[in-house]
Design brief:
The protein has 188 residues and is α/β, with parallel strands linked by helices. The protein has one domain: 4-Layer Sandwich (Purple Acid Phosphatase, chain A, domain 2). It has 4 helices and 11 strands.
Length: 188
């Protein structure tokens, strides 16, 4: 299964819809996971032309009250035998800062702590994949058997207004992997 992962679209503040390059990057995906800062249902409508969408949004009741695609704060879904926790603002219990390329779990998560146990307090479930956003820093890190994916932002990477990134998750019953996709590879 091929899964498109996106976060921090911030539409309409950075444009009426996500960058057109997202369509090419998500070519052939079976489903899309959006890790928040959506702002308006039209963004999900746009993404849903590509594939079905599962999303989270802080304060979802404000703009997504009756939208089954969106859950407030966090959600857990199962795809291809994997349990995926999705949230926007991930603070891993035991870490003093958010996960970015400069603060990976391998360096900043307590060596004697169990990541699965820490994440169970966040998602109320045992997960083997976590999708998150908020930092605008793209991250793929596998630690203690848990795959952590932050796709960055398609239009505000590292808080700079320019073409950014999304991620692709490849899932099978016995494997999981993720890759950050730079949208500039699809620009004309």
């Amino acid at each position: 299964m091929k899964v498109g992962v996106i976060s921090d679209t911030h539409n309409p503040s950075v444009g009426a819809e996500p960058p057109a390059e997202v369509v090419a990057a998500f070519q052939g995906v079976d489903v899309i996971l959006h890790a928040g800062d959506i702002y308006q249902p039209a963004c999900l409508d746009w993404l849903e032309k590509i594939a079905p969408v599962y999303a989270v949004e802080l304060g979802a009741d404000a703009h997504f009250r009756d939208d089954s695609r969106v859950i407030d704060k966090k959600r857990v879904i199962n795809l291809e035998g994997h349990t995926i926790g999705i949230t926007h603002d991930l603070l891993v219990p035991g870490m003093a800062q958010e996960i970015t390329e400069f603060s990976p779990l391998a360096k900043h998560f307590p060596q004697d702590a169990d990541l699965s146990t820490a994440l169970k307090t966040v998602f109320d479930a045992t997960v083997d994949i976590v999708v998150f956003g908020h930092t605008h820093y793209a991250v793929v890190e596998e630690y203690q058997g848990i795959l952590m994916v932050n796709p960055g932002s398609p239009s505000l990477p590292k808080q700079l207004r320019r073409l950014g990134q999304v991620a692709i998750l490849e899932l099978g019953p016995t494997h999981k992997s993720a890759e950050i996709i730079n949208l500039s590879a699809f620009s004309q």
